[in-house]
Amino acid sequence: MSQPSHLPGLTPQFCFNQTALRDFLRISRSAIDDSISQNLNALLVPGQRSFDPASTSSRSLSAPDRSIPPQTCDTFKQRILFPSWKVRSDVLDYCAGVATAPDPDDPDSVLRQIEDDKMRERVVDERLDPYSARYFPKEARTESLAMLMRNERAVEKIIRSRTWSVVGERCGMESDSAEEAFGKWREGSKQRRA
């Protein structure tokens, strides 16, 4: 069975390294959420029921019972699924904070300032070249990170919803949505630590 993801060292450099950030999220999602059916299948104990020789005398068109005992499902959710979601949420929250904070260490800020100054000084005659007035300033790395965080949060919401529906099918439907169940688990884990 899969193990929950481990929290990487959270630094602004980790967040600004979008390749490392995306790789962490991709690997974490693939270990738990993308392979949720396999993870749930691993919870089933083979041979729980003894073999019935009469089962070979007739053809059964119904699917075998693939439901998982509630206790086993709860343990999986508490120890594997929700901790993995928490690690990803912590990374997304931290990097979103980095994206909204001022970035005095931005290596491209001086270059952007020089480009902006040049564009302000430039004289443009749009009658001669209507496209000469176009100026597309390079976005700051915090803006790029903020866009990535919005996209990754949307992806995370979709993945959690899909995972939760599979868990609901195999473990028994719950009335809570994925976010509600995760929120309750987070509150409970905070209270257990306190």
UniProtKB/TrEMBL annotation:
It comes from the Eukaryota. Residues 48-69, 174-194 are annotated as: Disordered. PANTHER family: COILED-COIL DOMAIN-CONTAINING PROTEIN 58 (PTHR31905), PROTEIN MIX23 (PTHR31905:SF2). This is Caffeine-induced death protein-like protein Cid2. Coiled coil: none annotated. Belongs to the MIX23 family. InterPro entries: MIX23, MIX23_fungal. Transmembrane segments: none annotated. It comes from Paraphaeosphaeria sporulosa. Residues 181-194 have a biased composition (Basic and acidic residues). GO terms for cellular component: mitochondrial intermembrane space. Pfam families: MIX23 (PF09774).
